[in-house]
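Notes taken during the Thursday session

The instructor put the following on the board and asked us to keep it in front of us for the whole hour. The protein is Kynureninase. We were told not to look anything up and to reason only from what is written here. First, the residues (426 in total):
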Amino acid sequence: MTFQNTREFAQSLDAQDELRKYRDEFHFPHVNGKQVIYFTGNSLGLQPKRTKTYVDEVMNDWANLAVEGHFYSDKPWWDYQERFAVPLSEIVGAKPTEVGVMNTLTVNLHLLMVSFYNPTPHKYKIICEEKAFPSDQYMFQSQVKFHGFDPKDAIVEIKRREGEANIRLEDVLAKIEEVGSELALVLIGGVNYYTGQVFDMKTITAAGQKHGAYVGWDLAHAAGNIKLELHDWNVDFAAWCSYKYMNSGPGNASGFFVHEKHHNDKELKRFAGWYGHNKERRFKMEPDFDPVHGADGWQISNLPILSLAPYLASVEMFAEVGMDKLIVKRNLITSYLEFVLHEIDKELEGADFEILTPANQEERGCQLSVYLHGQGRELFERLMKNGVITDWREPNVIRLAPAPFYCSFEDMYEFGQILKRLILEK
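Then, after some discussion, the predicted structure tokens were revealed:
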């Protein structure tokens, strides 16, 4: 498609957008009396209007039924989490028995590492990416220390080449080969939070497993954003937060995946709790743990129903649309944003925008990370004051994520005009 940097062209794309009606299903903040242009769905998604109905339902059941809500509410709390199995499995490319919801992201990664990081004196190293999200870095450090290893030795980072923004697949594979028999675990962010780079999860998973290592993925920036096929890629485990592209609310419950090949492995360690015990026998209060078959057998505690309600509202919206349609729009709107940035760059003398995110659509989702050469944090702050909600990362990067559920093509055009005006006013 040949793009044009005009309002009329942007409006014509919106008119053809099959998902345009969903924009009205979200609450937008307002700045200076105007609805914002929202680019931070990669940090916290907007609130779906239907969320309140789901939360109110739980509150009303609690008020009217009290403890009986566990069994007699419209959506009984006893098995509330089971409603996520089918829609989540479709979002991440899994079988319904391979996915579940519990806790929050880093908590779930720690718990999954109980099963999938059991180092020996000779097989103890973890491979991750350079500049992994800090929470992952802290997790790795504490895990290897817990097992008696030195993080400087046990944690192996795959680095970017000098002068390059992204990590090359061949360098990931080479590092896996180099670590070889010492490799216990590969755990990488499926989409890098800083650059927006999407890793080739299928190829990397196979490479790590070839050396007898487990391979897991932090899908915080991937779930609800990119096409995932976790079962078919033979991924051992994964976890993701729900409050970014899946719009479940701040700090909300995490989703997780455990491949079915591990479900019957009695030797695989896990931390146990009452809610992971055999559902049919749970109230017999038996002394020995008998895990639920499937991913739910990794659950530990009673589920936080008030947290799950907004998440359920969101995943049911995903079920209505499907990832394929979201990805079609994601690709088009991200490409249009990229075009607008390049057009503004051409029009303004002295402007120099470097897009760190790969240009290849197979290597990116809906995030563009833009290095603002010659600009500073002041430009970011002025964008925010002018109703463009974006994200700043040191030293000089703004992250723009046009989430396809609620961002419009006219938003992309309007952002370009605001950006141009603010630079000229400087």
